[in-house]
Design brief:
Blueprint: H1 6-34, H2 36-61, H3 66-114, H4 116-126, H5 128-144, H6 149-169, H7 174-181, H8 187-225, H9 231-241, H10 247-264, H11 266-291, H12 300-340, H13 354-368
Helix pairs in contact: 1-2, 2-3, 2-6, 2-8, 3-4, 3-6, 3-9, 3-10, 7-8, 8-9, 8-11, 8-12, 8-13, 9-10, 10-11, 12-13
Amino acid sequence: MHLLPLPVRRLAAWCAVVLLVSGVGYVGIRLCAELRTAVTPVLLALLGTALLRPLYRRLVEVGVPRSLSAGLTCVAVVAVVGGAVYIVVAALIDSGDQIVAALRSAARGVAEHFGAAGTSLDDLASNAKELLTKFGGTAASNVISGVSVVGESIAMAVLALLLVFFFLRDSHRAVGALRSVAPRGTGDTLEAMARRAFRAVEGFMRGTTFIAFIDAVCITVGLLVLDVPGAVGLGALVFVGAYIPYLGAFLSGAVAVLVALADRGFVIALWALGVVLAVQVLEGHVLQPMIQSRTVQMHPAVVMVTITAGASVAGILGMLLAVPVTAAAFGVLHELRTRYGVSAPDPAAEGPSAEDSTGFEDSTGSEDS
């Protein structure tokens, strides 16, 4: 190796690191895919814990025992999530026929101007219920063959809820458990990385939920003012789609504009498009910087690639989990760069740099306090 020039040796070292990391990542992804029934509830429980931890801490601070605080938090999340699901499903059921009919009308209008492309849209809208029926038939055949998708989903949801309870109740023991499995001398670094990753996921979940709520309310109000049919159902789609950054907002906004075009005409459709664009501008230039400014920021291109990779691995669930998992990974990388990313060696600096010590204190002291 010493016979090779220094740039070649560096390139070889980086190639070896990239291959090693890629191999480990591939094996990890394959294991997660094979063990998805166990891995998915754990990931969902971590996201739920990150979102519900402030409520749990508030209950503990007022003197409620930890077990009771965790139980009350889980009951609250069941009530809130159950109520939200009921509202969304009821809204979609009540306005589903209107939305499908409006989409069919819009597809016919597009077909008159764009020919074959519009005809394909019309066929898709016309056969929407048939497609759903076929999907239900496929699910039923899976149940008959012994693979119950609904039962598996319910089991994973129950397991995730139980894990949320234990994660909340025993959160004060997490640091000790993490340090007990850390190799000698790496406890501080591992703890700081875990705190940074959890804080990134926590900020992402809180910020995304708040932004999704604001987007859904603003677009629903705008569609109600414009008298667009199925406004509440379209707002529910906006709220759910907000958890898939960029792509979800685009799809839900496009559906709202098409429904407005079909039922209210071209002018109202332009107004609906203006409402959707105004909400997206508000989100991108005001809400995102204000609400998620303290979390890990990712470039839109990275987010899109991450969503695509998540969809290829685990479908819709992968799209939902891809961004928070990537945010946690970015948090870990940021912590490692803060601790070890020294631009140039300084022989005069014998001890740890101020940046290293500050990063450690920021990632631990605030949580401990």
